[in-house]
Amino acid sequence: MTPPGPVGDRFRRFRDRLAAEGSHRPQVSEERPSAASGAAAASDTEAAGGDEAASGRRGDLTTRRSAETSGRRRRRRGGGGEELRVPEAEFTSYYGRPVLKGPVWKWDIAAYLFTGGLAAGSSLLAAGGQLTGRPALRRAGRVTALAAISASAVFLVKDLGRPARFHHMLRVAKPTSPMSMGTWILTAYGPAAGVAAIAEVAGVLPRHGLLGLAGRALPPIGHAAGLLAAGTAPALATYTGVLLADTAVPSWHEAYPELPVIFAGSALASGAGVGLLAAPPAQAGPARRMAVAGAALELYGTHRVETRLGLLGEPYRLGRPGRLLRAARLLTVGGVAGALLGRRSRVVGVLSGTALLASSVLTRFGIFYGGVASARDPRYTVVPQRERVEARRTGMDLPADRAAPPAV
């Protein structure tokens, strides 16, 4: 019988190597080889020589490695052995840049938030003094409202760069835009607060002549203007909270239910502080009630943003924003306690009013810097997005391979 040629030898060696590499453990055939196959195998072995022996050693090594891998897999399934874990994700971005473009606003916008709330709270205080016959409260509220709204205009124009940009905002009225609505609120509030404050000079005008006629006409005009300013004040106090929540800044956007509440409470607290500073204790009753209402709203709102938002509430608890909000909370509690316990003391009233004004400033700056901090850290953008995607995938009850986006 003619021995097999070299092509047949190479094919058999290749076939034997594939069989050895593809199995996790050696397989022994249960059939006995025939005499002819034994002779052919002997002939193949003699022809292969040293190459066949080397191939057999490589096959044995591959088999042992496959068996070890299979054993490790079985140990992991059974709970034994070392479990391999994927390393924690690092929230980095290209060239160290944040995921979001942070707000370009500076400290002047945080001051604008405070002065707008102060103007609104002062107009409400003035209306309360006007309706209850407390001239000291009315006068302090009207004058402070005019000064605060004038400061707000300065801060706003400084941020816009040119005064003409404010005028351009009046070309349209867009109810879905907080900036557009805020422009119209300021336009309605500013003249009313100015007329109400000017009416306070009627008492110093002469009684005769043209100035006397103006002095007699100003009080009723100021009365109507003061009520108009007070009617616009709630919108002025809260629209800035809606404006911040309408941005893509994570900790502002997610706190959309609480920011208007916080800003309304801060406005009432600042107006109450003006009343406690300017009015004698006998006329400060409305200011004390405003202080209680404002403190309740402010403390409730800040507690909610620190606890309800989960991860996105963290910027309000850490760093500079956390320190500002904690100090504001202490000042608010102290101011309300002094207003209620020191009703007959002028000194305690002044200290309580100062504490309430300071707490309003710190609250506005704490909320502002908390949002800026959340925009700078990619974690506050990436983690909530992943949680929302996972929640949608779970709610739709889709397999993981179908819910996950395709790999690129």
3D architecture notes:
This protein is an all-alpha fold. Helices cover 73% and strands 0% of the residues. The protein has 15 helices and no strands. It has helices at residues 6-22, 35-48, 50-78, 107-132, 135-160, 164-169, 178-198, 209-245, 250-253, 259-278, 285-307, 319-341, 346-376, 379-396, 400-403. Helix 5 packs across helix 7, helix 7 (178-198) runs antiparallel to helix 8 (209-245) and helix 11 packs antiparallel against helix 12 (319-341). The longest helix has 37 residues, at 209-245. It is elongated, with a radius of gyration of 39 Å. The model is unreliable at 24-56, 73-81 and 398-408 (pLDDT under 50).
Compact summary:
This protein is mostly helical. 73% of the residues lie in helices and 0% in strands.
End-to-end separation in angstroms reads: 60 Å
Rounded mean pLDDT is 78
Series of secondary-structure elements, N-terminal to C-terminal = HHHHHHHHHHHHHHH
Give the class from helix and strand content and strand pairing: mainly alpha
Biggest pleated-sheet summary:
none
- Tell how many strands the DSSP assignment holds: 0
Shape: elongated
Strand content: under 5%
Low-confidence stretches: 24-56, 73-81, 398-408
